[in-house]
Every structure is written in structure tokens, then in C-alpha cells.
Amino acid sequence: MDLGNAFDAAVARQPTALALVDGEIRRDFASWQADIRHVAGGLSAMGLKRGDRLVCIMANRYEMATLYWACQMLAAVFTPFNWRATADDVAFVLGDADPALIAFDDAAGDAVQTALADSHISNNILICVGEGLPGASFNELLAFDPVKGPADAVDSEICLMLYTSGTTGRPKGVPRSHRAERTATASVIAHLRYQFGDSALGVMPLFHTMGIRILLCSTMINGALVNMRGFNATAALQLIEAEKVNSLFLVPTMFHDMLGQESFAATDVSSVRNVAYAGMSMTSELERRCLDLLHPEIMANYYGSSEIFTFTVCDHLDKKPGAAGWPGINQMIRVVRADTDGKAAPDEILVPNEIGEVIATMQSPEAFSGYWNRPDADAKAIRDGWYFTGDLGYFDEDGELFLSGRIDDMIISGGENIHPEEVEDTLSGSDLVSAAAVVGLPDERWGQKVVAFIEAASEKATAEALDAFCTNSTLARFKRPRAYVFVEALPKSASGKLLRRHLRDGDYTVSPNFENTL
Predict the structure, then answer these.
(1) Are 225 and 212 in contact (CB under 8 A)?
(2) Alpha carbons 302 and 38: distance in angstroms, whole number
(3) For position 167, what pLDDT does the model report?
(4) Closest CA to 18 of 29, 34, 32
(5) Cα 20 from Cα 26, distance rounded (Å)
(6) Residues in Cβ contact with 24 at an 8 Å cutoff, skipping those fewer than 6 apart
(7) Distance of CA 338 to the CA centre of its chain
(8) 217-229, pLDDT tens digit by residue?
(9) Phi/psi at 129 (5° precision)
(10) 35-74 as b/e, with b when 16 or more CB fall inside 10 Å?
(11) At a CB cut-off of 8 Å and minimum separation 6, what does 469 contact?
């Protein structure tokens, strides 16, 4: 069953169930299906064919989700990209993906139009949402004759191409097949034990693997996707209460911000029964607060990637704080010798409690088959049937995985390996700290020194107080930060991931209310 038929199956099962909420827009499955078929007819009339790519650069919205499903009806390839990206990156993706159509909204309008100005792309292949933008209006697509039904794609055909965030260079295209996407969605439903009718907060960007997964899960279980066009902690709490949202699958920073709102205590979040996080590590302190304040029936750490969605899952964080857990039902995981030269082999397996690189089998039905136009990236990441994640971690005595950060983020100070997330986890336990990020900066004596960037939770926060806190903790003395920088806000990506490279590059705003020691 391809994804187009999977949507129709959901419609047949519960046509009047609420499918999508986006501000004043509300669609049940039957009415949304009608919109999707009309839009698919419009896309077909504009020339979108089986296997063609539609690049979509928008904030989360009804139009973007509708375009996603319309592509599935045509066996075309939905290709979303970050609406906050620079014009340079947009131009690169348009050149790399070679799209048949380009859809964008006013949130991305400036970057897209700047990118198009230096290209030979005609306005005839543009679809816009917003006033004063070139191309055909999305609403015009709704007036076309509808397609009769899905194009019946086969399992191996590509339905989606995600672009990675490009933390170490240009974004890389990750083509995903119908089989991989459908299996990954079923995997999430099984691991997180979603129930039919569960509604979800749709705030993770639809250009991100988590955002697409939430969209698909909601459809497969006939639940409502409660959309947010951009994350705002106060607005998120209001939506959760008003729409009685059942599941939250977010990045840790979003949980951190919501729990920290003054309005949280007065907000009814009792409808939330299922909480999961992915995309980055969550501190033990934040895990505890989620358990204590949200009281979920299920709380899980879901570790995966765009390339292979599921790696491991831990749904017993009350017993094992910080654990990434056991391999998922479609996966096998190893921890092998870590290196940065791409020469480590899958059989260089480490013993429990020894930190190395996490690798995952490409035999998983959730796996991609290789990057788009990037044989060099394939050679580095895929070796002898295993995908090298670039993540550091170790197995404990029970065979459960714990993550220790990225290979690129590891700090070597005075010949010792220091993992930023361990130091961040310690700092997060201080009442003086709202959020912390740790990086290694050049130092003549140590090679690299540990520097902590702090969002303060109190005006009493000082470098001396935090150093005393670390000294009295279980953190080894050589891992203590050698300098503290108090910042207005830690840099994050559009999906909420911490961007340590910005801190290393000096791209941050110092808070004027605190004394720094860098």
C-alpha cells in the first residue's frame, strides 16, 4: 500500500473524524480528501508527473500538508526545505533537486525570490501562498478537476526527499521510499503505543523528519493534526488545552520552554497522555520535570535520523534517565571504534560502557538507499551495509544505549575526552541555570578549554557560583567549564536543535546583566 492509498484507507475508515486544525481551518478526513484531490488535479495540470519533485518552502500550514498528500496521490516526490534558510541555500537546493514545481509562502518569500532572481526558473512552475508573490495561487489549484484516486506507486518509488540541516556543509538530499516512510510511521505508532483517534501537536517543521512523521502518524490512526505555523510556548499551551491534544512528539527545547511558562500551572494539560522527544538529548532534570508536571502515561526518548528513522527507543526514563534504550523493532545497533577519517569498520565492536560511534544496519525497512547526487557522502556514511551516524554512545550492562554527543562536538582538553552533554546535564541541575550549552574553544595550554554558555534562571547566577556547583557535583574536576558566557538565548535551528557551531563561531548575543569569564 503506497501512501496515497494509505490516506484513502484512513478516509474510508473514519470519514467524519477531525483530520486537521490550522487556525480557523478545520477539515475532517472526507473534506480534506476532496481538497487534496482537487489540488492534485491542479498540480497535474501544471505538469507534475510521477517521480517529479515538488520543492515546498513554507512554514507549517494547511496548504503545505495538502501539497504533501497531493504529491502522494500523483506518485510525485514531496521535497520540503527550511523556510528560514538563506537565499544561497535555497538556490542550492533548487539546483540540486531539479524540481518540476516550486511552492512557497510569504514566510519564505524574500529568500525564494532572491534565489530565483539568479536562476533561469520560470514563474510558470511557481505556486504561492500569500499576497504579491509570483506564480499561481494555491487557491487556484482547488478549482481544478480532482484526480480520481491515487496513482498506485510501488513500494520502492521515492515519495519524499528531505534535506539535512547541513551542519557540516551543504544540505544533503535524503530520498525516502513509500515502503520506508510507511514502515517508519508504523514503527512510531507501535513503539509509542499511539491509539486510534489520538491528536497531536503539529509544531515540528514539515521539512523535518519528525514533522512528517507526526503528520503521517495522525493520518494512519485517524487523529487530528493540530497545526502550529511556528513554535511559541504560550500559544502551544493554549492549543493543547483548547484542542485537548493527546500526544506531544517534540524536541527537548520545546518542552523546556513550555514547562517554564508562567501560564503552565494554570493550563489544563490533562489530555496529554503520550510524551516523546527526539532530535537531541534531554537533560535528566528536564526529563524529571516532564514526568512530574505532565504526568504522561508514556514518556519516551526516540532516537533516529532522517536517513533511517528508528534507531533505539527508551520508554522507561523514570528508571533509566537519559537512556536512548534498546534497538527498535526494525533495527540492529552497534557501538564501534570512533574516528573522524571514515575508516572505522562495522566489526570493530566495543565492549559495554566504552564510548564509540553508533552505527545502524541498512537492512532496516525504514532505511534510505543513499543520498541524492552524493556518492561521496554515501562512501563516508554507509560501509558494509551499516550506516555510521556520527553520534557517540555506549551500551550499558543491560544492552541499552546511552548517547554522549556528536563526534564533531567532542572536546579534547589536556589529552582528555570530554563530552559536552555530560557537562550540560550537570549544569541543568542548578537552579541558577535555565539552559546550558558547552563547547570546546582553542586554548594554548589545554588545546581546547571547556566553555559553558548559559541562559540564566536567576540574577544571582555567576561564574563562581556555577563553578562551585560543578565542583560539588559528581562531574569530574577536569570536565568543569574553564569559562562561562551568559547569553540572551542559545542559538537553535528551526526545528529546535541546539547549534553549538554558532557558539564556536562567536555567533551569539551576550547578556549585559552578567559578568562573563571568557
Answers:
(1) no
(2) 36
(3) 47
(4) 29
(5) 6
(6) none
(7) 24
(8) 999 999 999 999 9
(9) -125, 105
(10) bbbbbbbbbbebebeeebbbbbbbbbbbbbbbbbbbbbbb
(11) 426, 427, 429, 430, 432
Q: In what order do the strands lie in the sheet with 158-163?
A: 136-137, 126-129, 101-105, 53-57, 77-80, 158-163, 173-177
Report the distance separating Cα 508 and Cα 488, nearest Å. 8
Looking at residue 498, what DSSP letter applies? B
Q: Judge whether 105 and 63 are in contact, CB under 8 Å.
A: yes
- Work out the angle between the directed axes of helices 3-13 and 62-74 (0-180°, nearest 10): 110
Give the separation between CA 69 and CA 332, rounded to whole angstroms.
31
Q: What is the pTM of this model?
A: 0.88
User: Which element (helix H / strand E) includes 501?
Assistant: helix 500-504
Burial class (CB in 10 A: 0-12, 13-18, 19+), 81: buried
What radius of gyration, in Å, describes the C-alpha atoms of the chain? Answer: 23
Beta bridge partners of 160: 78, 176
- Cα end-to-end span (Å), the chain: 57
Average pLDDT over residues 51-75: 98
Where does residue 139 fall: left (phi above 0), alpha (psi -120 to 50 degrees), or beta otherwise?
alpha
Q: Taking a C-beta distance cutoff of 8 angstroms, is the pair 128, 113 a contact?
A: no
* SS3 of residue 388 by DSSP: strand
- Name the grid cell of 495: 526545528
Band of pLDDT at residue 495, cut at 50, 70 and 90: confident
Single-letter code of the amino acid located at 288? R
> Which residue spans within 255-350 are E strands per DSSP?
274-277, 298-303, 312-314, 323-327, 333-336
Amino acid sitting at position 32:
W
Residue 246 identity (one-letter amino acid): N
Grid cell 537531541 — which residue? 280
